[in-house]
Design brief:
alpha+beta, 113 residues, 2 strands
């Protein structure tokens, strides 16, 4: 079970929301990047598609280090093959009875650059 990392893959329109904004939303909502990873399955990670995305991610991570004085344990690597989760994991937010207006997904779908 520990040979994978649970993650989401986001397809986005850069004319609507920037890659930097997506990273900002992720780091504001996903605080596990301050915890040393206990397992590969639940680690914090960013998988980039090109050198530009890598540079933006490195810059954001360094800004967080400078602002907090803490180590950021976010795995940064090139995007490899992505495997979809089982069907029962799909569209979790839509199926959930929990209000998601303040979740990372609510912020993503409300727009903004």
């Amino acid at each position: 079970m520990g040979d994978h990392t649970e993650c989401i893959q986001i397809q986005y329109d850069p004319s609507v929301v920037s890659y930097g904004k997506l990273l900002e939303i992720m780091f504001n909502d996903h605080y596990s990047y301050f915890r040393r990873p206990g397992s590969m399955q639940y680690r914090s990670g960013i998988w980039y598609q090109d050198e530009n995305q890598k540079e933006v991610a490195e810059k954001v991570i360094e800004q967080i280090r400078q602002q907090t004085g803490r180590e950021v344990y976010t795995h940064l690597a090139p995007l490899g093959e992505f495997y979809m989760a089982e069907d029962y994991h799909q569209k979790y937010i839509e199926k959930s009875e929990v209000s998601n207006r303040n979740s990372i997904f609510g912020k993503l779908f409300s727009g903004g650059k």
